[in-house]
Every structure is written in structure tokens, then in C-alpha cells.
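FAQ: What does a multi-protein file look like?

Like this. Sequence, then C-alpha cells, then the next protein.
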Amino acid sequence: MKGYPKNYPLDSRTFFGVNAMGLISTTAYYLYTAVLMMFITDYSGIYTNVPGKAAAVATTLLFVGRLWDAINDLWTGYLIDISPRTRWGKFKPYVLIGTFFTGILGMMLFHIPQNLSDFGKEVYLYITYFLFMFSATIIVTVPLTSTMSADQEIRAKLISWPRITSNVVGVVFAFFMAIASFLGTKKSPNIPLTVDLIIIPFLIISLIGGFMVKEGPVAEGTKPPKLRDVGRMVKINKPFRVNLYFTFVGGFVWALLTATSLYYIKYAFGVANLGIQSMYFGLLTLVTLIGGTLISQKAMKYMSALRGVQICYLGMVPFLLIMFAINEFQVIHNPWLFYLLIGIVMTLAGAQFVPANLIIMETMDYNRLKLNSGMEATINAVNMFLQKLQSGLATIGVGLALLLVGYNAQILEKATRIPDSLLKSLGVVLFGLPAVFSLVAYLLTKQYPLQGEARTQMYAELAAKTAAASQKNKRV
């Protein structure tokens, strides 16, 4: 392609950039899910003389922040889509700007000026956190990647390796408190300095990656959408609608697994063993995500993205039902049996990532054909909104399961025997409901219209349309 590196987008420069540009997004995710709440409640120096006040501030901030983030996703996606194309492309400027400010604001979030009053510190947290979440939202790496190629095998490679490299960030955060304690003390870990030491290198690498990426030609010739096009997309783009249905239902499998597993591990394998068992589970999660991603990337050479998603959904059902049945008759107290079966489920869930993202890109391609506008950022925003909604609803589901059995952590941690009713209640949420959601999601995939000849025809028409637009631009 004229104006693009040789072998684009699999040339070494672009491939490195695609792998590196999203690292700061992963860093941001771990900061607000794994570190921020404990920092505010225990180490920020806010409301230290008012018992429970710091915890209330942290809970309210994170809850309101997630609501803001979810709503923010939707309108931000549309605003990005209607932005004019620059000489760097439409999405790359947002990726670079979002990356820079996410890094800076992420560090500011953990450096609260201690000369402020408690109320001043609270205001500082709200302003910084909201800006931080907004900056992370505009790092639209998936829409940018979708412009590089319409070939499924190439897209699979561009999606899978960033997924794998992002786990480097997860490994670093697994040792976060150990590093913070080393830089400070066990009683007063130096969290702000630890955050700086993690963010700065990942920020630099992400910016380098963003600059090295060249936005692709797939979206050339398309026009910015108008507001009414959002409604037209929902009406005309059946692949988009059906994908939303099965993605929303199927997404609860992973959301429930991650929200419930540690509770089950804690009480099924012994409260005293939680530290070592949670480490095993963390390593299992890492291995299965990487393994599943690598398997699915290779599989995309031999099957469609839809077939890959269907195999994953249907494949999880029997193993989840086996675990549910075992747990109903006799609680699973053997950790190795638990890890074996849940590991298979998590591998299939991890393998779903690549084909699921390929289907999202297909819905963008369908938009380009039917509406002459990919609306990539809007579609990406809707999918991000669904993920956050799933996470919130899954947490509510776990809470209801605990409420039904009168959960009291202080009493249970001192108990000589954990009641089976607790573990069976958790088993419904951890094994039973995911099996149902996975089966329903599989059945919904049957309604996806871009299968076989229909998919081939769509891409033939899109290629012809893109070629015609390219010829027109050359004449101009």
C-alpha cells in the first residue's frame, strides 16, 4: 500500500506500536480497581480523625465515578466519531492525548496535597478522578486497530498480542504492595512513589507505541456520522444488535467468575490458606488468559470469528454444570479439582477474547458498507458500557447470594466449620448461573447474520467500495 510501511500492518514498527500503545490503559484499570480504594481509606491522610469517613468517601467516589465513566463512554464515543480526520488519522490523536493525560492524572490522583483541608482533599480527589477516567476513555485502541486491515487473520494477530503483553502490567501489580512496603515500611507503604515508578515507564512505552502506529486505510472514504445515524445504525445494523445481545448475556460468565471465585476459595479451602490459594488462582488466571488468547489466534486461521465464539460458549457449559452438580452433592474442598475444572472454563473464556473483538470489528465494517461511516468509537463505547454494567450487576449478584445466607465475615473467619449453605449459595452464582448464561449466549449467536456467504459478500462489496473511494481521492 502506497504511503504505508512494507508488510503493513504486520511490519515490526506497527506491530510493536499496537502492542505497546494500550499499556497505560491496563495500568489505569489496575489503579482504580486494585489500589485506589485502599489508598484513600488507609494512606491518603483524609478524614483521619473521623472514623469511617474515609471509607465513605472512597465508596462514594468509586461508585459515582463508575456511573460517570459508563455514561461518559457513550457520548465520548459519538464525539470521537464526528471528529474531523487529521493528517494522523481520526483515532490516533485521541489515543496519544488520552495516554498522556491518563499517565499524568494517574500520578496526581495519588499525590494529594496535604496542606488542603479534608474537604479540599475530597474535592481534589473528585476532580482528578473524573478527569483521569475521562482521559482513559478516549484511548480508543480497538477502533484504531480496526482501520488497519479487514483481513480476519491479520486482525486476530493485532488483537491477541496486546492482550498478552498487557498481562505484564498485571504481573507488576501482583507485587504492588510488596514494592510499596519496600519503598516505605510495612505500616506505611509508599504508595505514591510506587505508582510513579509503575506509571512513568508504561506511559513512555505507550506514547512511543502510539507514535509508531500509522492509522490504516480501511475507514478511508467514510464520512463522519450525524446524530440520526446512531438511530439508523441500531435499526439497520443487525450484526451490531445481535452481537450486543449475546455479548451482554455471555459477558456475565467472566464477570461472575471473577466476582465470586475468591469468596469460594476462601471458605472452601480454608480462611488461613487464602493467601497462598489466591496466589495460585491469580497465576491460573494469568496462564489461562494467555493460553486461551494464543489458542484462539491460531484457530482464526481455520474458522470464522463467530464459530470461535460459539465453541467457547458451548464448551464452557458442561464443565460449569459438572462443577455445579459436584458442589450441590458435596462441596468442592479439593483445590486441585477446582483449579482443573475452573481452569478449563477460564481458558475457553480467555479464548473468546480474540473472536469476540473480531466480531465487533465486523459490525464496524458493516456500518462502513451500509452507512458509509464505521462509527467505530460509538460501537466501542457501547461495548465498554456493557462490560461495566456486567461487572456492576455481577457484584450485586454475589452480594445477594451472601445476603441470602446471612454472610458475616467476622463470624465466618473464626468459625471451626463453614456451613455448606454458604458454599452452595456461592456455587449457584459461580457455576450454575454462568452455565445458563453461556448456553443462552450460544443460542443467541445463531441469529448473527454475517455467516458463510453473507459475510463473504459483505467484504467483497466493502472492498469494491473502498477501492472506488480510493480512486476518487486520487483523481481529486
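And here is the next protein:
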Amino acid sequence: MHLYIGYQNYSSWSLRPWLAMKVAGIGFEQTLLPFYHSSALKELAAQHEIPAAVPVLEQNGQMIWDSMAIMETLAEQFPDKKLWPENSTLRALARSVAAEMHSGFSALRSQFPMNCRVSCEVEPSEASKKDLARLSVLWRKFNQPEYQAVKESGPFLCGHFSIVDAMYAPVMWRVKGYGLAVSDEFSRWSEAMLALPAMQQWLHDAKQEAWKVEQYDAVAGLS
């Protein structure tokens, strides 16, 4: 199994399946394709007739692209890893919230690109404030009695780490790096996410990268 990813400092979509696989203990090899500095991603895409985007999982000769498609495939192949919660009610909520990140939060993602190196304060736009408020609503929803009653023990959204945590992992870096505020529930979840050895490994590797992407660094005044 081989995972193709983008810059670890900037590529939020690459982080999602990478983190899910690491936390679940699913073994894989990885290749980083620095798409602003190399044509390797375009060549891979042309060879396999897939979009020139990361991440891509190569498995038994098949190419699987898009973060959600990769993680859904892994959830089917490794049911013992509990990448989705076992309870159907909680699983439905987790899937809905994961899909909302996949299709929404455009203002927050646009104004605040993931950048693991940043530590600053940037005033969010009105549209980004609405996205931050929506995060607070979602985190509160996971703590409603009907979901709390069926959660496994643990500090993550469904108790046990799952795909929905992986989908929001880059948001943790955005909130932390740009000095944003969401809620106490979000802060506690962020602390648990940051404590994961896999997240610490990603952060270490991101800080070691030599590549810089000026349009992303400019948001934090790093360019």
C-alpha cells in the first residue's frame, strides 16, 4: 500500500488519510510530491488518468483518489480498526459532519490555509466567523445526551478516534496557528489531537520541509 501526499506543511487533504492510517496502525509507504516545485504529480495523474491532486492511495495496482474515498475504502477493508463508530446513530452523525467538512467551510479554508509553521493572530472575516461558529455547533452536537450515551470512552468526537477526527485535523492547525477561537469543547479535542504521536510526527516532518509556498506563507506574514 502506497500513499502519495503533498507538502506536509501545507497539504490539509494529505494529512487526513495519512493521520487515519497512522492512528489505526495500517502500514503503508509514502511518497511526497511537491506539486508547486515538481511535475511528478502531473506525470502520475497522466499515467493513471486521475486528477492531478493529492492524496492518492495505490493498492494492488489500483489508484484511489480523494481523502474521503481513501478512508471509506480503508474502513471497509479494516473493520477491526473502527475507522467509523460501531453505533449506527453515532456513525450517521460522524459521516454527516465529515461530509460537511468535505463540502463546506470554504471561507475558513480559503482565508486560513493550513500552515503548521505559523503562530500568529489574524482577524477572521465575517464569513470565517460564521464557519468558526458552525464548528462550535457541531462540537456541541457530539456532546448531546443521545450521542454521549452511545460513545466509547475517549477524548475524540466519537470517543474512539475515527474518520471524522481525521477530517477536522487540519482545522486544528488553522485554529491553533492563526490564533482563532471556537469553544471549550473544541479546545479539549484539539489538545487530544495534538497529543497523538502521529500528529507530532507530522508536525516534525512539516517543520523540516525545505519547500515554501509564498501565497500560503503570506497570510501569516512569513513570505
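Q: Is there any per-entry metadata?
A: Some entries carry free-text notes. For the entry above: The radius of gyration is 17 Å.
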